[in-house]
Design brief:
By secondary structure, the chain is mostly helical. Helices cover 60% and strands 1% of the residues. The chain is built from 33 helices and 3 strands. A 3-stranded antiparallel β-sheet has the order 1-2-3. It is elongated, with a radius of gyration of 35 Å. About 16% of the residues have low confidence. It comes from Cyprinus carpio (Common carp). Belongs to the FHIP family. This is Family with sequence similarity 160 member B1. InterPro entries: FHIP, FHIP_C, FHIP_KELAA_motif. Keywords: Signal.
């Protein structure tokens, strides 16, 4: 009996399988309608609206509808709309889903609707947004996003907004369907509510806090690339609407100001400089650990993260929109918020605000925002600078004066700020700070320079410590592949000075290099007594840095050779400019300044010397230019320092052994022991010797770069 029953069941199962195989499957449209009606029947038949949507069949029905639409498109010719899609459009299913999502009934329905919209727009290849029954509910759903900050649906909102932005960027003409909305809501929400939702945890994230106290911010993978979407549309109408008819600029700048005001009034500049890279809140952090690290760490990261978001937004934006947004940051943040901080008299406040400004300059990469930042700091003037006009731009004047502040910390931080500025790819920085003062070459006398006795001496008999560059092992090792191979480098690297160029260029560069190497007298030198501190150590660094500068400056319209004398206005009085004046003044006091200040001053001057501009090269690196009365050059400033040094060294007992001991201590080769008198002067002498070697290396590298690309 048991076996008979088993056989009957097996036979019935076999018949059932045959029926399933032979019965035709439901047409896709009928299947699609079935799933949609199953969703609508739920609302008709169910009285319990408090049960979560995950306890119903709604998610599976929505997923089946998406699968059917995808299958239908795959089975039809490209661009052809199938009956299922026609049904979705004709019956305004997206409108109905929006209404259900807005009501969030049953609980969690909003999340399901956002996910459905996102997948529909992402999976279907044919353009859906042009359909009125698609872009209208999409607009409404965009308005729904960001209404509640840190909402449970935040991740789905971000995915949806990113998908819409990606569709607009993929087909820019689609933006016109959104621009038809007269109340501008689509841009207000698509752009800046999206920003408020996406950016970083203090404003719009839904952090989940574990028992360990860590806050984990879950973000979609689409944000990991740190690239804003949707704002780089090439449509002029979109850019105009974005900048004129929305409050995007105000939102960006107000929030930037909000984060800046949340920072502590006093912060350690080292903390500001070394805080980890920003990542828009895509991190795991511990509030207690942050507080132990330093006060205000989380506030600082939030500010820098928002700044980076604004910078990237401007970088990706359409050109007109980028200019407007960058201008807003300048006016509403830099001028309104930062300038009073930089102009204050409190030393603690000056130091903190300058350190923050330094970090901002390092971080900004977008061309439009960099330009507005530079205009804010230096002004827009490019004409010749005059002594009475240095206060024309008060902030520029104040910052340059801070390079020579009574507080060494403020001086160092401000000098570092200018050093970072000089490395930015912005021609206006160099034009405004130095080049506009050298354009007419009126630092030279209005006559052809004559060969001096010193030059004859250098030519007929070199000093005993002169360097034979022909036998330098570094440059004998530089193959053509390692040299500055671009032909454009020749135009960026002027000869030392065409006014006194000799047929033998190698002889000329020998004289210039040795002029710097021999500036410091033998009794004041100590590097030869310590291994690894020779002149050649600067050559590779100079070669690399000059190559990098030339790469930045190639697209600038710079002089490849000095302006001819007959075209220069040599009768106009020469003013070296406020910036160079302060640098030269500080260089002149190198024997009486702290070691760290001297390092920063010489670092800025070496950056200027590396720049491939004919007049700057001539003014800073040519020892033999015939200066006009009352004018000074970098070489002449160093000569005066050496003269002062010679008078003072004879007054210090055991000068040479003390100098060597100080050098070894600075290098960590000797432990700190008994205090040494005149240590500031001794450290200044060491910096002076090293700086002269660095200038010699720069002069040779620039000459070598030009000759290595000569035909």
């Amino acid at each position: 009996m048991y076996q008979l029953i088993c056989r009957m069941h097996l036979f019935n199962f076999f018949l059932f399988c045959c029926v399933i195989q032979l019965a035709p499957s439901l047409p896709l449209q009928e299947d699609f309608v079935y799933h949609w009606k199953a969703i609508t029947h739920y609302y008709i038949e169910t009285s319990d609206d408090k049960a979560p949507v995950t306890d119903t069949n709604i998610p599976s029905h929505l997923e089946q509808m998406l699968n059917i639409l995808t299958q239908e498109e795959r089975e039809r010719e490209s661009g052809e709309t199938g009956p299922c899609m026609e049904y979705l459009l004709h019956h305004k299913i997206l409108e109905t889903l929006y209404t259900l999502g807005k009501a969030d009934c049953p609980p969690g329905m909003k999340q399901q609707v956002l996910s459905f919209y996102t997948k529909l727009l992402g999976r279907i290849r044919q353009p859906l947004l042009p359909h009125i029954n698609v872009h209208r509910p999409v607009q409404k759903l965009v308005r729904l996003c960001g209404e509640v900050l840190a909402a449970p649906t935040e991740n789905e909102e971000i995915q949806f907004l990113c998908t819409v932005c990606a569709k607009l960027k993929q087909d820019p003409y689609l933006v016109n369907f959104f621009l038809e909305v007269s109340d501008r809501d689509i841009w207000d929400l698509l752009v800046y509510r999206h920003i408020g939702t996406v950016a970083i945890s203090p404003i719009g994230m839904s952090p989940s806090k574990s028992q360990s106290g860590h806050i984990c911010t879950e973000r979609s993978s689409s944000l990991s690339s740190h690239q804003p979407r949707g704002i780089s549309l090439p449509e002029p109408a979109a850019a105009k609407c974005l900048t004129e008819n929305t409050e995007l600029s105000q939102l960006l700048t107000d929030r930037l100001a909000q984060f800046y005001r949340a920072l502590p009034q006093s912060m350690d500049p080292l903390d500001i400089e070394t805080v980890e890279s920003v990542n828009w809140g895509l991190d795991v952090y511990n509030l207690k650990e942050d507080a132990v690290a330093f006060a205000g760490k989380r506030a600082l990261i939030s500010f820098l993260s928002w700044l980076d978001y604004c910078d990237q937004l401007i970088k990706e934006a359409q050109k007109t929109a980028a200019a407007v947004l960058a201008r807003a940051v300048r006016e509403r943040f830099f001028v309104a918020i930062m300038e009073p901080q930089l102009m204050q008299t409190s030393e603690v406040g000056i130091l903190t605000s300058t350190a923050l400004l330094n970090r901002i300059i390092r971080q900004v990469t977008s061309e439009a925002l960099l330009q507005e930042t530079v205009y804010f700091l230096l002004g827009e003037e490019t004409g010749p600078e005059t002594p009475v006009g240095i206060t024309q731009h008060p902030l520029r004047h104040r910052l340059i004066e801070h390079c020579d502040h009574l507080s060494d910390e403020i001086s160092i931080m401000t000098l570092r700020l200018f050093e970072h500025l000089l490395q930015k790819p912005c021609q206006h920085i160099l034009q405004n700070l130095v080049l506009r003062c050298l354009e007419e070459r009126n630092y030279m006398e209005n006559k052809q320079p004559e060969e001096r006795e010193e030059r004859e001496h250098m030519e007929n008999g070199q000093p005993h410590d002169a360097v034979d560059l022909e036998e330098d092992p570094l440059f004998s090792d530089l193959s053509p592949d390692n040299r500055l191979s671009s032909p454009d480098w020749l135009s960026c690297s002027p000869p030392p000075s065409t006014e006194h160029t000799k047929p033998d260029g190698k002889t000329e560069v020998h004289k210039i290099v040795n002029s710097f190497l021999c500036l410091v007298p033998d009794e004041a030198k100590s590097s030869y007594q310590v291994e690894g501190t020779g002149y050649d150590t600067y050559l590779r660094d100079a070669h690399r840095q000059f190559r990098d500068y030339c790469g930045v400056c190639q697209r600038w319209d710079w002089r490849s050779s000095p302006k001819p004398f007959e075209k220069c206005n040599l009768d106009s009085p020469f003013f070296e400019g406020h910036f160079l004046k302060v640098l030269f003044d500080r260089m002149g006091r190198i024997l009486d300044q702290p070691y760290d200040v001297n390092l920063q001053v010489t670092s800025v001057l070496s950056k200027l010397s590396l720049l491939p501009h004919a007049h700057l090269h001539e003014y800073l690196l040519d020892p033999y230019i015939n200066l006009a009365p009352g004018c000074r050059s970098l070489f002449s400033v160093i000569v005066r320092v050496v003269g002062d040094l010679m008078l003072r060294t004879h007054r210090i007992p055991d000068f040479t052994p003390k100098l060597l001991l100080v050098r070894k201590r600075l290098l960590g080769l000797e432990p700190e022991g008994m205090s040494i008198d005149h240590v500031t002067l001794l450290e200044g002498v060491i910096v002076l010797e090293e700086f002269c070697k660095e200038l010699a290396a720069i002069a040779f590298v620039k000459f070598h770069a030009s000759t290595s690309t000569s035909p």
